[in-house]
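Sequence in, structure out.
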Amino acid sequence: MTTAQELAGQRHRDHMRNLLVQAAEGFGLTLVGEPVFGWRDRTIGAPGRGPHGDLWVRVTTEFPAWASGRAWTGNSDADALSGVPRPEVVEVTEWDDPPRRVRAEAATLLPGDVLSTTRFLHGRPEAGELWWSDLRDALDRLAEQDTDRVAVDQETITRRLLVFFGDAIDPTVTRWTTAHGDLHWNNLLGPDLGVLDWELWGSGPAGLDAATLYCHSLTHPETAERVRRAFADLLDTPDGIRAQLFVITRLLLRIERGDDPTIAPLLHRKARELLDDQSR
């Protein structure tokens, strides 16, 4: 029997599909692929074809109080970055769809496919040695770029680590760099490197992106070890350990709010390992 919540979710997804068609038509594009929903169906996207080639059409909806700020404009703000293979936003439009606000973006298409259909990895990704080298180079270039955007601030890190771990870890970050902010496997393309979804990018503790990718790899130990080898010089620093613990807290909070709970034991185990290493 279909529940009221399931019916509401289906109505929301149907409405998002209609908004996507409306956005594509506004950009002069015809949708040519199946729509892909983002985290908790707050976004939807699909390829569109027009007289000047193919683009990716993406629609986000939020209540007006949230329809501004870094996450709202992150993809287009990222056009200021260089040296990272990412889509370029070529057109943006917004409109009211009471009680929500809609933002639609048309962006360049990158070659390849996402390396996982979910945020967490459950199989070996199609990523060769060149891909790993390109990822490291891209994140190093990103880290060096200046921005006034913030992915996560000291106040948030201090509060989160204190709530979860008490005084077991000093929360004070000593080095800040520019980060993607949500680097999981559904945001990465292969076999040629591409990095998607720049909503949350900004400054964060050094090693934040490595920590995020590592924690999303715990479901596939072989790849988790490959991430560790690629970024050991960041992950094994005091800021890298803080970043890993912060990412763990963020993922655990998402589980509390409805994400897959089967990942929780892996996250708790990794947190204990990190804290045990700190106490030695």
